[in-house]
């Protein structure tokens, strides 16, 4: 895939995240990432911050999947991680094949509303929020 096509796809996905960010007060950043930490789309943040969040999220989703695998009779996939830190919340939700939706929000965010809007977004546009595995042929 050419760099121009990849950039256009990223820009096309960014608008999808704006509705989530604007509909939940106290939302700071919204990022869609691939399972290997590549930022696919962003809203409310600059490219460097989005790339750092995506890379950190890849490690967190991998850790979550390892923990989920310990539950018997389950497929071991991570569905949702919520981390509360001093000053806010971090949400990470599975959002399609090999893709994840990540949100940073201030500490007075409505957690229930955030979870609901994230689920709604994933249900509506989940097919657009996927990142198929890369093959060796795609590596330059």
TrEMBL record:
Pfam families: Robl_LC7
Segments forming domain Roadblock/LAMTOR2: 14-105
Gene3D superfamilies assigned to the protein according to its UniProt record, in alphabetical order: Dynein light chain 2a, cytoplasmic (3.30.450.30)
Record protein name field: Roadblock/LC7 domain protein
Annotated source species: Streptomyces rimosus subsp. rimosus
């Amino acid at each position: 895939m050419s760099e121009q096509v990849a950039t256009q796809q990223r820009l096309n996905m960014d608008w999808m995240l704006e509705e989530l960010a604007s509909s939940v007060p106290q939302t700071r950043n919204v990022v869609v990432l691939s399972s290997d930490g590549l930022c696919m789309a962003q809203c409310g943040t600059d490219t460097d911050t989005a790339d750092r969040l995506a890379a950190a999220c890849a490690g967190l989703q991998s850790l979550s999947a390892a923990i989920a695998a310990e539950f018997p009779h389950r497929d071991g996939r991570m569905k949702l991680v919520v981390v509360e830190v001093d000053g806010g919340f971090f949400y990470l939700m599975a959002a399609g094949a090999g893709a994840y939706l990540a949100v940073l929000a201030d500490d007075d965010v409505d957690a229930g509303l955030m979870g609901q809007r994230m689920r709604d977004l994933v249900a509506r546009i989940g097919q657009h929020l996927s990142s198929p595995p890369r093959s060796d042929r795609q590596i330059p």
